[in-house]
Amino acid sequence: MSTVSRAADRIESVPFLTRDDASLLLVLPGLFVFSAFMLFPVLYLLGISFTNAEPANLFAGEGVVAVLTFGDALFVGLENYADVLTDGQFWNSFGVTWLFVATSVTLKIGASLAIALIVTSELVRGKRVLRSLIIFPMGLPPIFTITVWRGIFSSAEFGLMNQLLTAFGASSVAWLSGRWTAFVAYNVTEAWLAYPFMVIITVSALQDVPEELHEAAVVDGAGFLARFAHITLPSIKRPVLFASILTSAASFQQFLIPFVFNKGGPARANELIVVYGYREALSFQQYGRGAAISIIALVFIGAFMWLNVKKGKLADGVND
């Protein structure tokens, strides 16, 4: 008998408790931890979004209770949401964020699929070494990696990208001073951070493709591209879609890359929505407005993930 079963039997032996009640008691510690670290912060953020909270009034009272009850901040209803939704900078950040999600995820899928096909090819030797090297970036702190890439895209002549351009006879580029050159730098860095995860999922999916299907297609005269389009892609579609949804959410919440590179510049042109919320809350000290931005972002990313899971039929069989 397992430990969980023995615990359930002991709880069930208590008067007035059924086995269903015992099962509920067993999950209460997990629910408490989830509520403390996940649910409560979201609810607190939602509460602040309906107030005019700022440092002067949110921390006006004494003790933890005063902060938890929003101090002297006043209830303003939907005023923060109205201000945000009528702010041109919000819509710029909103559009740039979704563009960043679309371009970075496309780049990540393409790069990871190409790498996965290489490391699973029968023509490649030393696959284990290659896979170890591929996942190596996952062991590095993101802030370290992003700082290195900032140096690579430095606008100075000694920046690695500018040295490569000069070596091929092109002129140097002020990467982080232009809107779209900085946006390209964001995408490349984001792809570098996320490709190990995508490659792991894609390689696992490729290994599950039945070899008999490829052999039968070869006998029928199908080339590599035909086998890739009609056998490989349909077989790995669901795992890759699942990984894409997860990495899309990560791209939507990206903060470090634009903030470390140029703080969403130039002139806030590339300010992703999380950086926008951070600036409103901490730089301008408008906590209520910053909370409203975060809640709006949470709603959109939640709807995006739900829609993709629904349309991609990734939840099929969960209730079986």
From TrEMBL:
Cellular location(s): Cell membrane
Residues annotated as transmembrane: 24-46, 58-78, 98-120, 132-152, 158-176, 183-207, 287-307
Listed PROSITE patterns: ABC_TM1 (PS50928)
Start and end residues of each ABC transmembrane type-1 domain: 94-308
Membrane topology: Multi-pass membrane protein
Principal subcellular localization: membrane
SUPFAM superfamilies according to UniProt: MalF N-terminal region-like, MetI-like
Organism domain of life: Archaea
Record keyword Transport present: yes
A single cellular component GO annotation: plasma membrane
Keyword Transmembrane helix among record annotations: yes
Gene Ontology process terms (BP): transmembrane transport
Protein name per the record: Sugar ABC transporter permease
Record's keyword terms, sorted: Cell membrane, Membrane, Transmembrane, Transmembrane helix, Transport
Record family assignment: Belongs to the binding-protein-dependent transport system permease family.
